[in-house]
Amino acid sequence: MSQIEGARVFREAWIAGVQEHFPGEPKPSYVTPWDDTPEWERQAAGSVYEQVHRFLELSGGHASRLSREQKGRFIAICWTAQIFKHFEDPKPSYVADWPNLPDWQKETDADIFEAIEKSLS
Questions:
Q1: Count of CB atoms situated within 10 Å of the CB of 35
Q2: 38-50 confidence digits (pLDDT tens)
């Protein structure tokens, strides 16, 4: 799968997770379709997809045995690194550590990891 296709897997999983887990009506930017997603965000999604892909590969597939929380934490830390890459001085909420993320985002991050796993099988 190309990095662009992987980025789309990431984005589609994010949107599905937000629609399932977000309490109330999400901000429009949370569910922006792929074609309207900013270029930096497409690149970041592709990079995180590739990191998960490599992580699973390097573990011989055994990273799939991680708990949902561990999977979500992996996505969160990879995404935070991308935010620092693309923004000189990001808002603190964009780079919040796992304990400070809202529950809907934690669940969505775990969903993203699992969607990437499925896309590789």
A1: 5
A2: 999 999 999 999 9
